[in-house]
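User: quick one, sequence for these C-alpha cells?
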C-alpha cells in the first residue's frame, strides 16, 4: 500500500522484471500525458549483487518530447542509486538490499512538460547484476 496517494495503472509499466548486467535503457516507453503528471516510480528489486563491494546501480528516469527518445532530446529527471555501501556517493553507510523503493516523480523539467518517460540503468562493478521491475503510479487528485 502506497499511503493512499497513488492510482495503480498497469499501462504505466516502465520495466518488466529482468536482470541487468550492463548499462542500458528500458525498452518500455509509455506516453504519460501532455499535462503535468505527478506520482511515484515504484521499483521492486528482487535481486541485487553487492558481493564485490564495488557494485553500484543508478536507475534514472529520463524524459523525452517524443517516442524516439534520442540522446539529443532526453533529459535526466530523477534517479535513485543502489548498491554496496562502499560505492555510496554520500556518507551513507548502508548496503542496499532487495525490496521496494519509491522514487517521487513528475514530468516537468526546467519549465517544460515532457509526455514520455523511460528508465535507464547504469551498472558498474566487477559482477554487477540487478533484477527489478518498475512502474509509474500517478498521484490521485
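Assistant:
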Amino acid at each position: 500500500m502506497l499511503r493512499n496517494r497513488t492510482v495503480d495503472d498497469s499501462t504505466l509499466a516502465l520495466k518488466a522484471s529482468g536482470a541487468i548486467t550492463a548499462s542500458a535503457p528500458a525498452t518500455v516507453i509509455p506516453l504519460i500525458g501532455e499535462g503535468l503528471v505527478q506520482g511515484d516510480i515504484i521499483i521492486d528489486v528482487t535481486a541485487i549483487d553487492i558481493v564485490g563491494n564495488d557494485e553500484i546501480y543508478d536507475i534514472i528516469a529520463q524524459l523525452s518530447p517524443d517516442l524516439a527518445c534520442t540522446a539529443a532530446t532526453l533529459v535526466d529527471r530523477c534517479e535513485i542509486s543502489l548498491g554496496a555501501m562502499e560505492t555510496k556517493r554520500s556518507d551513507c553507510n548502508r548496503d542496499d538490499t532487495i525490496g521496494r523503493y519509491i522514487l517521487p516523480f513528475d514530468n516537468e523539467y526546467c519549465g517544460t512538460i515532457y509526455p514520455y518517460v523511460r528508465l535507464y540503468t547504469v551498472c558498474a562493478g566487477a559482477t554487477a547484476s540487478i533484477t527489478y521491475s518498475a512502474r509509474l503510479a500517478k498521484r490521485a487528485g
